[in-house]
């Protein structure tokens, strides 16, 4: 009897144990944020699988890293740049500037940021199927090749997109009327509403810390929306917008007076470096750069893979269609604001900047993905055939974006391998620190790989011994100049390089010259660069 009772007593216990597991998993998988978390995790894995963390540093990345990494030469920090991204990478870059380590950290930040940015929209939206809409918006955004490419990069644009998405959501939460939401405890709801105001200020401040110009356009878009809708005219919203912008701009403004001769001078210099902001058809440059190159300046090249640009042409119409669908179901406000904020963030690059880069429009893509996702979800729910069409279209978009990503990553590896090959040739030719590398085709990463500083200069007849530690790099032959000898190099990607070195240094044997190890070693001149060629 005892044994049977023990067995009987054991069965319910086992049954309870197993009954809890489906209950626990159902709570997790059934949570509204579960689809979004799955997309964020998938985004991080896609970066590791398709981009990897071994891509060597690009020019802009090295500038940002050099501000916090003791192992990199001090690169000139020009007027348009802001230090927000340097603070994001600082916890790891201070200890290691290894691309594999730092890129892994940035991949973790970017995948987490995707989840955090879209998470408040689960509170903003309350219509049927809103978790699917938010998750699909995150998937459409993260599926773009440029978003995956820059996920592990030390670049600010992606995080401006995250801050803009979150700030727009917190704006909508901050202007929400607790009585309209059906909350009987209005006083308690008013106290709780301070959280969205803080979130709004924080989102704007983060955007301003990363890219001040983008933050100004974000605040302008949200600030114009505030009086446009009567229900949104909550008095505390405007101070939160202005306060967040002021807080985020404060370091940039202080640095303007300590390093750039004043705020107006820094603004003028930033505009000059960016080609002087003026009315222009920047939309043509952004269209040309849609599938690469990473920076189109000057942008006088044909569109790459023109058969893969259809989505960009359809995007504004799909976003407008999503807003119309939202109006029909009574939620036009949130989706309309996302569309307006996205358009505002894109306006400066489409009509004021005279060159293009795919990363410039990331904040706009992140916001416009929300009304597009609503349109696709509602179409998929309308009938089974429509669901098949929508699924096929989304899958096709992801596949084609992956094909572009694969090509971009391949070209980036080849280009940066070419820079290393040029640097190795310079080192074998006897160039050693302290030294400088310059010329029309020279780059900051090339100089770093050679163990030198970077500086723009022109070749001239060498008359002093201290001028002998220099190298001049071009992509086309140039006329001979007294004291310089030329060497040519064809890298694995088929490009020709012409390297000019001082005659005495070029004749030395690499073994007797004892070049420094790759990377920064010893004392080198302060690094500078030519912004009109490389942009931001």
Automatic annotation (TrEMBL):
Residue ranges of the TM segments: 28-50, 102-121, 133-151, 157-175, 196-229, 235-254, 307-326, 332-353, 360-381
Alphabetized UniProt keyword annotations: Membrane, Transmembrane, Transmembrane helix
The protein's name: Glycosyltransferase RgtA/B/C/D-like domain-containing protein
Top-rank taxon, per record: Bacteria
